[in-house]
Amino acid sequence: MQEFFQQIINGLSVGAVYALIAVGYTMVYGVLRFINFAHGDVFMLGAMTALLAATSWFGLAAYNAWVALPLVLLFAVVVCSVIGFLVERFCYRPLRNQPRLTVLITAIGVSMLLEFGGQHRAVFGPTPQAFPRMLPYQSVALGGVSIDIVDILIFALTIALMLGLSYIVRFTRTGMALRAVSFRFDTAMLMGINTDRIISVTFVLGSALAAVGGVMYGIKYRQVDPLMGLLPGLKAFIAAVLGGIGNLAGAVVGAIVLGVTEILVVAYLPNGSQYRDAVAFVILIVILLVKPSGLFGTHAIEKV
């Protein structure tokens, strides 16, 4: 039983990272009704810029961990927020009135630009690099279950950021405007809401969360490369679909379910590590067949 609970803790840690990415997918879809497939690569940029800030750029890894880590996180969040803003402003905004397929193709193009641009030697290079540990090797024993300090940090940051995002969406003027734009784009414009600003804020918030996820992923798995955002990005998208794309709470729940399922498959199925990535796509197929709107989504009827 202790082993089972240990695997649950491991799954919650993975799911928490997925949640930080999935929320960005669901926010953009909730406002613009399209999938930003470049979002997984913003996650990669968060890990990449954090690694460079910790080593070659500023050497922050040499400082005390509890001083260096906030600075590395802040740097990654700022860089990814700016990238998210620029991608929306120059890649997606000019195509806002174009068919959705056009925007989708553009998103795939932006994704490939970030992935293969990062492999240029002047940027990062194609070779995976080791992420500095930055945190001491410590764990907390709780009822026979060992929780690594990195996992504790991931849990704490994810909970804090989700609560902060919930507060912004529910209790601030920007959040009210965001909900209005999500509900009815054209009516929000008629009511005087600056929709361009709200959409930019959506991309900035989603990119900031993905940056934190990228840093936590790098600290946990200790390896960064320009293609690392591909699978986590796809899995986070599946988690958003599972929870109900456009629903913030649903994205978090879907990510947790997916993370725990992955770890249990690895732990208890013969050769389970070979099926870890496949299980996410099996879940996607099942949810699309059984409940396409997701666990917490509602079926919307569109007039043609």
How much of the sequence is in beta strands? under 5%
Helical stretch count?
11
Largest sheet, spatial ordering of strands: 1-4
Overall shape: it is: globular
Give the name of the CATH architecture: Orthogonal Bundle
List the SSEs and their pairings:
Layout (H helix, E strand, L loop, with lengths): L1 H31 L6 H19 L7 H28 L7 H19 L10 E2 L8 E4 L2 E4 H23 L1 H11 L1 H6 L4 H27 L1 E2 L5 H14 L4 H21 L7 H15 L14
Antiparallel strand pairs: 1-4, 2-3
Helix pairs in contact: 1-5, 1-8, 1-9, 1-10, 2-3, 2-8, 2-9, 3-8, 5-6, 5-8, 6-8, 9-10, 9-11, 10-11
Keywords:
single chain; 70% helix; 4 strands; two-stranded antiparallel ribbon; ABC transporter involved in vitamin B12 uptake, BtuC; mainly alpha; 11 helices; 304 residues
Question: What would a concise description of this structure say?
Answer:
Helix 1 (2-32) packs parallel to helix 5 (149-171), helix 2 (39-57) packs across helix 9 and helix 9 crosses helix 10.
Describe the protein in words.
- The structure is a single chain.
- The chain has 304 residues and is mainly alpha-helical.
- It has a single domain, classed as ABC transporter involved in vitamin B12 uptake, BtuC.
- The chain has eleven helices and four strands; from the N terminus they run ααααβββααααβααα.
- The chain has helices at residues 2-32, 39-57, 65-92, 100-118, 149-171, 173-183, 185-190, 195-221, 230-243, 248-268, 276-290, and strands spanning 129-130, 139-142, 145-148, 223-224.
- The strands form two sheets. The protein has a two-stranded antiparallel ribbon with strand order 1-4.
- A hairpin with a 2-residue loop joins strand 2 and strand 3.
- Helix 5 (149-171) crosses helix 6 (173-183) and helix 9 runs parallel beside helix 11.
- The longest helix is centred in the first third of the chain and has 31 residues, at 2-32.
- The chain is globular and about 55 Å long.
- The relative contact order is 0.20.
- The mean pLDDT is 90.
